[in-house]
Amino acid sequence: MKVTINEKGVRRWLQGHAWVFRSDLKSLEAERAGPATVFSESGKILGEALYSPKSLIALRRMTQGREKITAGLIRERIEQADRHRQVRFKGEKAYRVVFGEADFLPSLIVDRFGD
Predict the structure, then answer these.
(1) What is the DSSP letter of 50?
(2) Judging by beta carbons within 10 Å of its beta carbon (0-12, 13-18, 19+), is residue 79 exposed, middle or buried?
(3) CA distances from 27 to 30, 80, 92 (A)
(4) Is residue 66 part of a domain?
(5) What is residue 85's three-state secondary structure?
(6) pLDDT per position as a tens digit, 23-54
(7) Residue 42 domain-assigned?
(8) Same domain, 56 and 82
(9) Are residues 35 and 84 in the same domain?
(10) Cβ distance 62 to 49 under 8 Å?
């Protein structure tokens, strides 16, 4: 899928914002939810995001530049989040392992309860 965003959306993207709002979409070659390559109006690839056809938050950023969304990328981010939380919550039996955008995994929440 290919999505082009307007200047306002590009400015926010380049500032590191995790979301692109529906009002910032310029053109869209997508019909259903899923990964999308995000472009500026000049045709520059900005990265990849998860597209939602129903939400006002149309895109949730996953990557920057030409980096692709892959199973390996997702696994790496989950493992990185888990390592971070194991240090932060050492000895705890219940805590949030993955916290969505904070771990560059938008909309994903993973909680650990016990073992």
Answers:
(1) E
(2) exposed
(3) 9, 34, 47
(4) no
(5) helix
(6) 999 998 877 999 999 999 999 999 999 999 99
(7) yes
(8) no
(9) no
(10) yes
Write out pLDDT tens, residues 47-102.
Answer: 999 999 999 999 999 999 999 999 999 999 999 999 999 999 999 999 999 999 99
Predicted structure pTM score? 0.87
- Cβ proximity of 19 and 59 under 8 Å: yes
State the Cα–Cα distance between residues 67 and 63, nearest whole angstrom: 6
Q: What type of residue sits at position 4? A: T
Q: What SS3 state is found at 27?
A: strand
In the block, tokens 């070659």 appear at 29
Same-domain status, 51 and 77: no
Instruction: Please provide the distance, in angstroms rounded to a whole number, between the alpha carbons at the two ends of the chain.
Output: 39
d(CA 67, CA 48): 7
What does the chain come to in residues? 115
pLDDT at residue number 31? 77
